[in-house]
Amino acid sequence: MSWREAIRLSNVAFAELSLQAVYAFRQGNVLPPGRSKNLVARSQRRVLQSKLVISAVLALLTLGAAAILHQKALNPEILASVPVGLFQSAILTGLLSLDIALLWWTGVQVIPTLISSGVLPVLEPLPIDPRTFRRVATILYLRLFDLPALTIIILTPIAVGIALGPLAGLVALPGVFVSVVYALALSLLTGRFFLRRVQGSRGGGGRAVVRWAYLVLWLVPAFAMFAFITAAPAFFRALGGLAAQGPSVSSALLAAAFPFSFAALPEIVAGGTSSIAILSPTIDLVLGVAAALYLALAVWSVVWLARSVRTLLFLPVQAPLGLPTTSSALRPMGRARAVLVKDLRIASRTPGYAFLILLPILDAGALGLLTYSTPAQNPVAASLALGAVTTAALLATFFGPAFFAIEVVAYSYGRSLPLSNRSVILGKVALICLMYLVASALIVGFTLLRFFQPFTFVAFVLVELPAVLGAAFLELGLLFRWARRRGLAITNLYAGAWFAVLVSIPGLIMAGLPPLLFDLARPSGVDFGLGIMALVAVAELALAAPVALGRGAS
Amino acid sequence: MTTTSPDASSVPLALEGLSVAYGERPAVQQLSLTVQPGEIYGLLGSNGAGKTSTIKAIVGLVCPVAGEIRVFGLDALRDGLAAKARIGYVPETSMLYEALTPREFLEFVASVRRMDATTATRRMQSYAEAFRLEGEIEEPIATLSNGTRQKVLIIAALLHAPPLLVLDEPLNSLDPRSVRIMKDVLLRYVASGGRGVLFSTHTMEVAEQLCQRVGILDRGVLRGEGTLATLRERVAAGDASLEEIFLRLTEEDVGVRAAVDSLGDPSV
């Protein structure tokens, strides 16, 4: 069969994938009431919308990088120590790294849905020759990334071309191609890793800790962005040092590192090797050889991807053999707590949910460390710690609503249980508060080691708690009312998560208002500021709780 | 809490004029039936006849457009949580939380059903042993076969010993041994008095073996109801099997012959 036939079959498979991603029927969701017509077309529109959102983020990043490349004078402080060419190569390195991170993260989020949707196994009994089948699998996999990948491939060379000249734009193309291929390959590798080591892992206790540790690794792509932004000043300082030193072993290592070896190429074309300052004929050779090797690896990855995608889509989730089974006693608990424990257990085997729990906590750890490393005499140090607690509250509030999606999984069973919306909402609210409290404890722990003002920090965390509770109640109450009416699954990036984002806006305002008022009132005294903050936070909770626990919601 | 007369409160399930629709498309129309205490009631029908829609309405998964559902006298549409507390449900497709193990899933169900640890553990262990599930009780559900998932759902339905079981094709994917166990469990279950089972199937032999009464659904409408003997009388066929009765009541007997004739020789 031809490529045309493979594309036709992949269209059918992708329609099914979209339907499952949005409505999660295979995961137990039920048909939305009164909206059974055009489900497939609607789900495909939602998937397209989600792809457009990711593409828009990538486009913004590219345009931002282009603006920095173009407006070199915006960074006089950095340019005083880093040569322009090296600076521009570093910016392009950052852009390519972020492109890989975002594409990889997209894959990480979507691949479990691709596998659980079982779209390819449905085609297996049909008389389709293996080559066509492989093509269908490859096309289907590529379609997960099509618009975002095309955005990178088209926009990056144009952006570089505008900033550094048309030839430089053209030379940027191999680096862009290699980055996209690596992101796709990493997604596939981590997808297999997820199936084998995380979803198939059993038991609690120590093994749950191991699972959570694996899931921290899963967050690497998302953290790459965070790390790049926060580490940028230190990175540029190091580059300044390298430039001052001239060609050295360190600069050879930098030249050999991916994606710098590609990011330097447009600059070499535009300004010559001298513009980068750290290059020499030997280092030029290192850079050229490294780029050629990375390109060769990318070509090999394309072949590997084409061969391996099919096996990923048919890979059964397998439990490891030989582990002793734990005690099979049941320990029933309260309903809201049961919802919380169930969500934590599911999150420990599901990267998408683990990400939501771990990100605020890891972020708090990073910010806490930052506070710890700030000189004690620095007047902004205390504000930094309180700002970190506020960030933890905002992140927990922003990500919390996504846990609603767990309720859509196995919906056809869950709704048959005598479990009120109120219990479910209480369980989810408890999870959001737990995320906030664990993150805040980390920040306060680090802060108290440095600035021993227990009352201010602990009181700030506790006074903010009602605002976090209020925000969580408001968000989940609105989500329950909306989703029950529409029967949608908010299970992943492609599942119309826009409403979860939308309800986060009032939630973020609620969680952010008390710290803002504290900051405004603080000149009149910390106690006064905390008092104002407490008053507003409790009022917010009193206003928001009925939205979730009132008659309409339950 | 809404209750009716004491007699009605002993009736496991009563549907009155139940209608379910998906948008413009009706799935069940004006369905009335009763599951009596000590009875296994078989709901029969072709694919798309409305069996699953009826069951989903009973357990609160879809909202009927008209009619009443009473579970031991409780109005299930108004007092859904109290009605659900009295029901054990096995869905048609084994949709579970894939990331949990059977033990974790059953622990969640036991928590929601407010069971005590001793009873929940005892029941889980005895059913797991009967269905030979002990080795898989700590495996993630994602790794289990369809038959094993079905066993997990059956255990979840039986865990709190509910007075009403609502089972949607519960024997699907089960091995012969487990089918036999399940049939015996159901017969003993209703023999203990006061309990009822609504059982949907399109396997006539199973219905003939298990059900005291059957209702035959066709395109959302109840075409006939009663014991095998009363249905035979109704179609005026003294020794007809349930399959023949089903085909006559749904007026498919002629259609089946015509369909087979139109196929001709399958090898051609």
Walk me through what this model shows.
- The complex is a heterodimer of chains A (554) and B (268).
- Chain A is mostly helical.
- Chain A folds into 2 domains: 3-26 and 39-314, no CATH class; 335-549, no CATH class.
- Chain A has 20 helices and no strands.
- Residues 319-326 and 488-494 of chain A have low confidence and may be disordered.
- The N and C termini of chain B lie far apart (64 Å).
- Chain B is globular.
- Chain B is of the alpha/beta class and 268 residues long.
- The mean pLDDT of chain B is 86.
- A 6-stranded mixed sheet of chain B has the order 6-7-8-3-9-10, with helices on both faces.
- Chain B has a domain at 1-86 and 165-170 and 202-260: Rossmann fold (3-Layer(aba) Sandwich).
- In chain B, 38% of the residues lie in helices and 24% in strands.
- The interface between A and B is large, with 52 and 53 residues.
What's the quick description here?
The complex is a heterodimer of chains A (554) and B (268). With 554 residues, chain A is mainly alpha-helical. Chain A has helices spanning 3-23, 39-70, 76-79, 84-116, 119-123, 130-164, 166-199, 205-218, 220-245, 249-256, 260-271, 281-314, 335-347, 351-373, 381-399, 411-414, 421-450, 454-486, 498-521, 526-549.
Order of helices and strands of chain A: HHHHHHHHHHHHHHHHHHHH
What name is given to the CATH topology of the domain at 1-86 and 165-170 and 202-260 in chain B? Rossmann fold
Distance between the termini of chain B: 64 Å
Backbone shape of chain B: globular
Individual helix count of chain B: 10
Largest contact between chains: A-B, 52 and 53 residues
How do the helices and strands line up, and which of them pair or pack?
The complex is a heterodimer of chains A (554) and B (268).
Chain A: H1 3-23, H2 39-70, H3 76-79, H4 84-116, H5 119-123, H6 130-164, H7 166-199, H8 205-218, H9 220-245, H10 249-256, H11 260-271, H12 281-314, H13 335-347, H14 351-373, H15 381-399, H16 411-414, H17 421-450, H18 454-486, H19 498-521, H20 526-549
Helix pairs in contact in A: 1-2, 1-6, 2-4, 2-6, 4-6, 4-7, 4-9, 4-11, 6-7, 6-12, 7-11, 7-12, 8-14, 10-12, 13-17, 14-15, 14-17, 15-17, 15-18, 15-19, 17-18, 18-19, 18-20, 19-20
Chain B: E1 13-22, E2 25-35, E3 39-45, H1 51-58, E4 66-71, E5 74-75, H2 80-85, E6 87-90, H3 102-112, H4 117-130, H5 146-158, E7 164-168, H6 176-191, E8 196-201, H7 204-210, E9 213-218, E10 221-226, H8 228-235, H9 242-249, H10 253-263
Parallel strand pairs in B: 3-8, 3-9, 6-7, 7-8
Antiparallel strand pairs in B: 1-2, 1-4, 4-5, 9-10
Helix pairs in contact in B: 3-5, 4-5, 8-9
